Amino acid sequence: MIELQINGQAVQVDDPSTPLLWVIREQMKLTGTKYGCGIGVCGACTVHLNGKPKRSCVLPASTAVGQAVTTIEGVNHVVQEAWITHRVPQCGYCQSGQIMTAIGLLESNRAPSDADISSYMTNLCRCATYDRIRAAIKTAAQQMPPLPGSKLPADPEEGAPKGGE
Ligand code: FES
Ligand code: FES
Hints:
The protein is of the alpha+beta class. It folds into 2 domains: 2-74, Beta-grasp domain (Ubiquitin-like (UB roll), Roll), CATH 3.10.20; 78-143, [2Fe-2S]-binding domain (DNA polymerase, domain 1, Orthogonal Bundle), CATH 1.10.150. It is 30% helix and 13% strand. The protein is globular and about 45 Å long. The structure holds FE2/S2 (inorganic) cluster (2 copies).
Protein backbone atom coordinates (compact mmCIF):
# COMPACT_ATOMS: atom_id res chain seq x y z
CA MET A 1 0.00 0.00 0.00
CA ILE A 2 1.28 3.44 -0.93
CA GLU A 3 -0.22 6.90 -0.68
CA LEU A 4 -0.23 9.46 -3.47
CA GLN A 5 -1.28 13.09 -3.61
CA ILE A 6 -3.37 13.74 -6.71
CA ASN A 7 -4.68 17.27 -7.16
CA GLY A 8 -4.07 17.77 -3.46
CA GLN A 9 -6.13 14.74 -2.48
CA ALA A 10 -4.61 11.75 -0.71
CA VAL A 11 -5.26 8.41 -2.37
CA GLN A 12 -4.24 4.93 -1.23
CA VAL A 13 -3.01 2.53 -3.89
CA ASP A 14 -2.86 -1.19 -3.12
CA ASP A 15 -0.40 -2.23 -5.84
CA PRO A 16 2.56 0.16 -6.26
CA SER A 17 3.20 -1.23 -9.74
CA THR A 18 -0.18 -0.06 -11.03
CA PRO A 19 0.34 2.46 -13.84
CA LEU A 20 -0.34 5.95 -12.54
CA LEU A 21 -2.82 6.46 -15.39
CA TRP A 22 -5.06 3.71 -14.04
CA VAL A 23 -4.99 5.16 -10.54
CA ILE A 24 -6.07 8.48 -12.02
CA ARG A 25 -8.75 7.16 -14.36
CA GLU A 26 -10.08 4.02 -12.67
CA GLN A 27 -9.59 4.72 -9.00
CA MET A 28 -9.97 8.51 -8.91
CA LYS A 29 -12.44 8.61 -11.85
CA LEU A 30 -10.55 11.59 -13.27
CA THR A 31 -11.15 10.84 -16.93
CA GLY A 32 -9.68 14.00 -18.43
CA THR A 33 -6.35 12.19 -18.67
CA LYS A 34 -6.59 9.86 -21.66
CA TYR A 35 -5.29 6.47 -22.65
CA GLY A 36 -3.85 6.44 -26.14
CA CYS A 37 -0.90 4.23 -27.00
CA GLY A 38 -0.03 2.91 -23.56
CA ILE A 39 3.67 2.87 -24.40
CA GLY A 40 4.76 6.42 -23.65
CA VAL A 41 4.62 7.70 -27.21
CA CYS A 42 1.43 9.69 -27.86
CA GLY A 43 1.27 11.90 -24.75
CA ALA A 44 -2.50 11.62 -24.26
CA CYS A 45 -1.87 10.50 -20.67
CA THR A 46 0.39 13.43 -19.71
CA VAL A 47 0.13 14.68 -16.13
CA HIS A 48 2.48 16.71 -13.96
CA LEU A 49 4.74 15.33 -11.27
CA ASN A 50 5.94 18.27 -9.20
CA GLY A 51 5.04 20.50 -12.16
CA LYS A 52 6.91 18.51 -14.81
CA PRO A 53 5.03 16.76 -17.62
CA LYS A 54 5.19 12.98 -17.44
CA ARG A 55 3.46 10.22 -19.34
CA SER A 56 1.42 8.42 -16.76
CA CYS A 57 0.72 5.25 -18.78
CA VAL A 58 4.31 4.10 -18.32
CA LEU A 59 4.82 5.33 -14.76
CA PRO A 60 4.30 2.90 -11.90
CA ALA A 61 2.28 4.58 -9.18
CA SER A 62 5.24 4.12 -6.84
CA THR A 63 7.17 6.69 -8.91
CA ALA A 64 4.78 9.38 -7.75
CA VAL A 65 5.17 8.79 -4.01
CA GLY A 66 6.19 12.04 -2.35
CA GLN A 67 5.46 14.09 -5.47
CA ALA A 68 2.51 16.31 -6.27
CA VAL A 69 0.52 14.72 -9.07
CA THR A 70 -1.59 17.18 -11.06
CA THR A 71 -4.08 16.22 -13.72
CA ILE A 72 -5.99 18.44 -16.13
CA GLU A 73 -8.79 18.61 -13.55
CA GLY A 74 -6.39 20.28 -11.13
CA VAL A 75 -5.18 22.94 -13.57
CA ASN A 76 -6.33 26.54 -13.87
CA HIS A 77 -3.87 28.14 -16.25
CA VAL A 78 -3.71 30.86 -18.88
CA VAL A 79 -2.84 28.15 -21.40
CA GLN A 80 -6.40 26.89 -21.21
CA GLU A 81 -7.76 30.34 -22.08
CA ALA A 82 -5.41 30.51 -25.05
CA TRP A 83 -6.65 27.09 -26.17
CA ILE A 84 -10.19 28.46 -26.16
CA THR A 85 -9.18 31.66 -27.94
CA HIS A 86 -7.54 29.72 -30.74
CA ARG A 87 -10.22 27.00 -30.80
CA VAL A 88 -7.52 24.39 -30.67
CA PRO A 89 -9.44 21.17 -29.98
CA GLN A 90 -11.01 19.18 -32.77
CA CYS A 91 -12.05 15.76 -31.44
CA GLY A 92 -10.33 16.80 -28.21
CA TYR A 93 -8.92 13.43 -27.28
CA CYS A 94 -5.29 14.50 -27.15
CA GLN A 95 -5.88 17.97 -25.77
CA SER A 96 -5.55 17.38 -22.04
CA GLY A 97 -2.12 15.98 -22.66
CA GLN A 98 -1.27 18.77 -25.05
CA ILE A 99 -2.20 21.38 -22.46
CA MET A 100 -0.26 19.68 -19.68
CA THR A 101 2.81 19.54 -21.89
CA ALA A 102 2.39 23.13 -23.07
CA ILE A 103 2.28 24.32 -19.46
CA GLY A 104 5.50 22.44 -18.82
CA LEU A 105 7.11 24.20 -21.77
CA LEU A 106 5.97 27.66 -20.73
CA GLU A 107 7.03 27.18 -17.12
CA SER A 108 10.59 26.76 -18.40
CA ASN A 109 10.53 28.98 -21.50
CA ARG A 110 8.38 32.09 -21.74
CA ALA A 111 9.37 32.91 -25.32
CA PRO A 112 9.39 29.60 -27.16
CA SER A 113 10.39 29.64 -30.80
CA ASP A 114 8.72 27.40 -33.34
CA ALA A 115 11.68 25.07 -32.97
CA ASP A 116 11.35 25.06 -29.17
CA ILE A 117 7.67 24.20 -29.48
CA SER A 118 8.31 21.47 -32.03
CA SER A 119 11.00 19.83 -29.95
CA TYR A 120 9.10 19.99 -26.66
CA MET A 121 5.57 19.30 -27.85
CA THR A 122 6.06 15.68 -28.86
CA ASN A 123 2.42 14.83 -28.09
CA LEU A 124 0.60 13.42 -31.09
CA CYS A 125 -2.67 14.78 -32.49
CA ARG A 126 -4.53 12.73 -35.05
CA CYS A 127 -6.64 15.78 -35.91
CA ALA A 128 -3.46 17.69 -36.75
CA THR A 129 -4.12 20.72 -34.56
CA TYR A 130 -0.41 21.48 -34.41
CA ASP A 131 -0.63 24.97 -35.98
CA ARG A 132 -3.32 26.03 -33.53
CA ILE A 133 -1.39 24.57 -30.64
CA ARG A 134 1.65 26.61 -31.66
CA ALA A 135 -0.42 29.79 -31.90
CA ALA A 136 -2.07 29.18 -28.54
CA ILE A 137 1.27 28.57 -26.85
CA LYS A 138 2.57 31.88 -28.19
CA THR A 139 -0.53 33.72 -27.01
CA ALA A 140 -0.24 32.18 -23.56
CA ALA A 141 3.46 33.03 -23.41
CA GLN A 142 2.64 36.71 -23.93
CA GLN A 143 0.20 36.63 -21.05
CA MET A 144 2.58 35.09 -18.53
CA PRO A 145 5.06 37.07 -16.42
CA PRO A 146 8.71 36.63 -17.39
CA LEU A 147 10.69 33.99 -15.57
CA PRO A 148 12.96 35.56 -12.97
CA GLY A 149 16.31 36.30 -14.61
CA SER A 150 15.80 33.86 -17.40
CA LYS A 151 16.25 34.22 -21.08
CA LEU A 152 17.58 30.71 -21.29
CA PRO A 153 15.98 28.21 -23.60
CA ALA A 154 14.08 25.32 -22.10
CA ASP A 155 16.17 22.71 -20.36
CA PRO A 156 17.04 20.22 -23.09
CA GLU A 157 16.45 17.39 -20.64
CA GLU A 158 12.86 18.53 -20.47
CA GLY A 159 12.61 18.44 -24.26
CA ALA A 160 10.77 15.18 -24.62
CA PRO A 161 8.95 14.42 -21.41
CA LYS A 162 8.56 10.70 -20.93
CA GLY A 163 7.54 8.57 -18.08
CA GLY A 164 10.20 6.95 -15.99
CA GLU A 165 12.81 9.68 -16.32
S1 FES B 1 -1.15 6.74 -23.55
FE1 FES B 1 0.23 7.31 -25.12
S2 FES B 1 1.94 8.13 -24.01
FE2 FES B 1 0.63 7.35 -22.49
S1 FES C 1 -7.82 17.05 -31.32
FE1 FES C 1 -8.28 15.05 -32.08
S2 FES C 1 -6.49 13.91 -31.63
FE2 FES C 1 -5.94 15.94 -31.16
